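Many introductory courses stop at the sequence. We go one step further.
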Amino acid sequence: MIARHRAAGSGRDVALDAVRGFAVAGMILVNLQPQEEIAYRQLVHAGWTGVHFADLVFPMFLVIVGCTLAITGRRNASIGPALRRALVLIAIGVVLGWLLRPSLDPHALRLPGVLQRIGIVYLLAFLICRQSSGALAPAVAAAVLLVGHQFLLFAPDPLGVTGIGPGEGLAGWLDRQLPGRLHRPGWDPEGVLSTLSATGSALIGLSAYRWSRQGSRALRLALAGLALIALHIPAAALAPLGKPLWTPGFALLTGGITLLVLAAGQLMPPRALAPFAWLGRVALTLFVVHMLLIALLLRTIGGDTLWHHALAAALRLPVPPALAALLAALALGGIATMLTRLLQRRGWLIRA
């Protein structure tokens, strides 16, 4: 079964590539919705609490980061390459954020972001990975981070203010200490405190994938996924599920769902996984290309952004508005995918 899912001579797990590709495709589809007000509900983030499909794709990607470390990471491996990779991801993320809102004002620069979080989480998970070769150490580290985050969510900030609403408590206070611009008034969805549980998401993947190598991979991944989904229930009773705070219950639930999807992928023929597996292998380049496309779409022509013109064209189709928004996002995502394919043919893929 495992051999079926490895590309010949490469040692790659095709199912792992495919789930990574599914996650990045989901992120791009959500990001390219031209207008959230008319989009399908599941393609828009749930808000402060709740979980929609749009909220699953980023944690799914981080779990796969951990699973990949189980293959590529080695005990006592050199920190240099991992640090370089993390810094490259963070730098690319900051530059892309600047391109979305170019300004010479340093206070307008947003330092947190998706690639920045991936870089930080990858580096922290790598440091745990290199300390052991088994499943127990990352599992314990994930538990410590999730429990610690659960406690800190309700800890008062230095002014003695508590709360887990937008911008409240220690989480909001830490975000406001960051230099530059926050994505939301008073807090950031890729903020400081939520990095604890986000790192826990990657460690869940690292631990589960290592454990799955000791028997039937699909069965063990499915069992781990079901266990995490069960564990999220008491965690959700302590703090509501939500991506903005990346609550421990949210990390457990999304980690469990990801492992179930990965287990299902292990049972599918590689040919069926091939399109998403390709997306997974070019994930960084595809993500950068789609962000550059968004930066272009935000430019104004004739008093409106190109994004507005794209949506207006889609809304003229004889379909419901939500379907029109989805078709526009699929068309834009198709453009980003074709550009990525052209870059791949020229050997210009971005690698961190």
